[in-house]
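URGENT: need a sanity check before tomorrow's submission.

F., can you look over the ABC transporter substrate-binding protein record below? I want to be sure the sequence and structure line up before it goes out.
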Amino acid sequence: MNNNKPRWLKTITGLTLAVTLTVPVLAACNKSDSADDKTERVLRIATPYYGEEDEYFRQQFTEIFEYTNPNIKVEIVSAMNQDRYRYGPPPEGEKPEDPNEKMKELMNGDNPPDVVMLDYGQLPDFIGSNLLQQLDTMITKDKFDISDFVPAVIDGIKSAGDGKLFALAPTFSSQVLLYNKKPFDDAGVEYPKDGMTWDEMFDLARRVSKGEGENRVYGFSFNPYNYGSKENLFWEMNTYTAPLQLRMFNDTADKMTVDSDQWEKVWSTMISLSKEKIFPEPIDYSKMDAARRAAMDKGEYNPFQGNPFMSGQVAMTLGQTYNLNELINANKSAQNIKGYTPIDWDIVSVPTHPDAKGIGGNVYMNGLMGINAKAQNPNDAWKFIKFINGEEWAKLKSKSVNQLVSRAKYIQPRDGMQYNVKAFYSNKPIPIENEMSKLYREYPNIGQVSQMGMEYFKKAMEGTSTVRDALKEWQTAGDAALKQMKENPNAPINPMPGKAIAVPAG
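Structure tokens as predicted:
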């Protein structure tokens, strides 16, 4: 199902010309002297979602390899049935397929794949099940240089394998803290810097927040497009809480854990910042629409009126590569955008907590692949993984403005600009909690417990309940929901968020 594909699938790169020009170089760099080069072989690559006919996967990962290795036929095998729900919804109460279990079945089958593509969150499970070959020995034997792999990728993969490498990822995505220099200059406040704590960043945000109404400059937003709704804040503060590994329920999903001092501190911090108007306030859409119409009548329509950062109303925000691209392109075309003032900006690493220093920023590894322990063609599997993680491949893919390659040498600012590009890879990914991942696979509706929390967070923000009382209510309602979920794992446990849940007697 397309909705289950990783978010990086949505990023399509225009590299056709670059591929055409670079293939001869890659071919020369990967040509082997082995007599086995003429022997026809099959390399089977298993993915969670892509199939044999998936054009994007081949363009992204295998076409150039096949061109430079014409004797190797690449077969792409999907672990999931792509047609299962194509022609209609699943039967009521049917448990969704578990991608981990489906991949394991494939890896242990009669015709096992050689290479397996995984999400970062799956690594500990597959490593712990002894399904992946360790790559360190091969890396050492072939003197495959990984010294310039960024910490966000290589340290993250090692942490999942207890210091050992069982996979590599050629590209990744992450967040940075994007800031507008003008509010800091106006307030006489120093610019943000790499390695800040969240409290240090919030302090800067307070110092640059000023003004009222439409002239207000807000210190920080978790999202460039966020106008401060309670719902948005509830979900977006996950970037703040995730590195703390702050759980909503215990390892067995039979007891909530939100009635705690730590949860109270997090909610109190977010609500206080919101009341101080550090975060953007909810927008009056009727007024905004009127302003847009008036501006359009005058020929002064600003396409960034829905983006408080691009409109100069927010001093700092979290962003990704596409946000930088939007900003760079807007600044280049500023003379053609009426009402837009070019922004003098830079980036630093996403703030972290003292108890989880250097961890955070929603690091996501693209094309993470390892070798099946039961691979039928392990030599070509390693050849392929070396190829897509090699320098020449990184050099080619670095031409894209929408991807970050894993080799630091080829991560450079766009168009000869000067900005702190290292901010993208300074932080490490959040450690994987294997037990939590397992619960989300085992109980497909468990996410509804977190949805319930939004209703209680709104009560705390509106002042109709204290923070601790709101958390206690969530704890009680969540306990009932978890009980209902255990009794009927595949049924919706909370169809009406914020309402009392009927718990079966007994």
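My own read: Residues 1-25, 27-35, 495-506 have pLDDT under 50 and may be disordered. The first strand starts at residue 41 and ends at 47. If you see anything odd, call me.
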